[in-house]
Structures are given as C-alpha cells and as structure tokens.
Amino acid sequence: MTLTLLKFTRHHLPLLGALLLLMLLFPGETAQATELAGAATTAPAGATSSSLPWWFWPLALFVTCFLIGIVAVPAGIGGGTLFVPIVGGFFPFHLDFVRGAGLLVALASALAAGPMLLRGGLASLRLALPLALLASISSIAGAMLGLALPANVIQIALGVIVLGIVALMFSVKKSEFPVVAQPDRLSSILGMHGVFIDGASGRSVDWQVHRTPIGLVLFLLIGIMAGMFGIGAGWANVPALNLLMGAPLKVSAGTSGLVLSLVDSAAAWVYLNRGAVLPMIAVPSVVGMMLGARIGARLLNVLPGAVIRKMVITLLLFAGIRALMKGTGLWV
Fold it and tell me: Count of domains in the chain?
C-alpha cells in the first residue's frame, strides 16, 4: 500500500498540489461558504452549533472517499453511486453540494480510466458517442431539475433510486459474451461493432449490438438520473449495454467509462455555474477517491468479488433507507 501511495504521489503531484492549494489558500472563505451550506460550522437541524474545527469535515471526507474508492473498483460500480447516498445521508452537508461533488468524483474516475480502456480495446467510441450525446443533453435537464426541487424531495427520490439499484444488483446476472444474431439497421449505420482481445482467455471476440433505438431512449432517462442525483450512471450503463444491447461485458464496462466522462462533465457545469461546488467538499473527495481506486484496482485480483458485492449492497441498502427517512423527516 505504501508503494502504491508513493507512485501515485510522484505521477500526480501537480494535480494534488493544485487541488490542495485551493483549500490551503482559502480556508476562511471555504469555511464561510460551508457555514452557509449548513456543512461545517452548523450542526443538523435542531442541534446546537458544532465546535469542530473547519478541517475536520474535509479530513473525514477524504477518509470516507478513500474507503469508497477501494470498495467501488472491485465491485464494478462508479464511486459516485456510493458517494452521494453515503455522504448525503451521514454528513451535515446540503445535498446540492454533495451532488455537485459526486459528479466531479465520477468524472475524475472516468477520465483517469478512459485512455487505458481505449488503448486496450475495451471501450468503443462508435458505441459510446451516440449514447453519450443524448445522455449529456438530458443530464443538463436533470441537473437543472435537481437544483430546482426541494432537498427533501430529492432525498426521497434518491432513496428510491438507491434501493432500486440494490434490487438491480440482486437480480441482474451479467452475460460475459451475449450472442447477437443480427444487428439492427441503426447500429449498422452508426458502426456499432468491433473486435477485442479477451485478456483472460486470449480469444478474439467479434461483437455487434441490437435494440439500438430502445437503448437510445433508455440513455436519455439515465442521463436525467445522473444529472439530478449526481451519482453518475455506471450502475445503469453496464446493464443497458450488456443485457439490452448485447455488447460483451468488458466492452460494456469500458464504454460506460467513456459515456460517464461526457455525461458527468455536462451536468457538472450546471452545478459549477450555480455555485453548488465547494472546494472543501470536492477536493478531498476527488483526491481520496483517486487514491482509494488505485488500491482497489490492485485488490481486484485478490479479493473475492462476491464479498465486495455483498458489502456494497449492504452499504447501499442502509444508505437508501437513510435517505428515505431523512427526506420524510423520520431521521434528521
């Protein structure tokens, strides 16, 4: 683990320095903005003011996101899927700022993995771009809708979506190499096909997709949810590409990262423009997630996938119930 941290620091020192400099140069402004958000110096509703120093919450965020990054990679889900329900439910931050940071967290993870996936043939630009275009447009509408709705309504809707993700993870069985006998006309026109070499078996796999019109409509809905809740959409992208459209599982996972990088960047601009991104929340979250994800990638070949999957389902189930109760006022 120490070697991993040293290598990450050496290769990403300029990025870490720029991010941490924001917090070091503007601690007063950050604390003041967080106070207005009801985050650092104000306790939850009905409680007294907190005597904790301003740096306590960034440190707690860093540790939490570091652990989320370790778990999210072996589980095969985006960090934003865990970040928003956990941080929004158990930290005293306003949900708008949590969603803005969640999009940046998902965006950073997707951008870091994109070039490697393209070089390895595990992601397809021809498959990603039409889907990402529609999802990006709808994610802007979703972000604007999410910022316009009351926080308790978003909390309730987020709880329902998170519990839906839990049900999806329980029921869906991914197919590694789906058989698509005949591609549809639209996928043929858009060139949604390719070849990749499976590293595990060494076999060359020719793939093509079908049900493209349904997939395009589904990605419009996925974009709305990604922008509204700030959770990214890797949890929905992969089943849609793999089970509905018939892309191989590894191609689906890789292409999902490219779609995320475009969808999350579009929605993130809305939150940035509305002032819903605080350095105090975003900086430690992104840095912690990046460090944790690198360690999680190394643990991917060591830890049993079933154990990680059960852990993620348990966390999401608890966070989803917490969001529902918080939105309905049963738990403040």
Answer: 1
CA–CA gap between residue 138 and residue 141 (Å, rounded): 5
Contacts of 243 (CB under 8 A, 6+ apart): 172, 174, 175, 178
161 pLDDT exceeds 50? Answer: yes
Residue type, position 175, single letter = S
- Give the number of other Cβ atoms within 10 Å of residue 11's Cβ: 9
The pair phi, psi for residue 98, each rounded to 5°, is -65, -40
Angstrom distance (rounded) from CA 148 to CA 15: 33
CB 212 within 8 A of CB 193: no
| SS3 per residue for 178-203 | CCCCCCCHHHHHHCCEEEEECCCCCC
Please give the model's pTM, rounded to 2 decimal places.
Answer: 0.70
In terms of Cα–Cα distance, which of 44, 311, 239 is closest to 155? 44
Residue 218 has pLDDT above 90, yes or no: yes
Across the range 191-205, mean pLDDT stands at 77
Domain that holds residue 300: 2-328
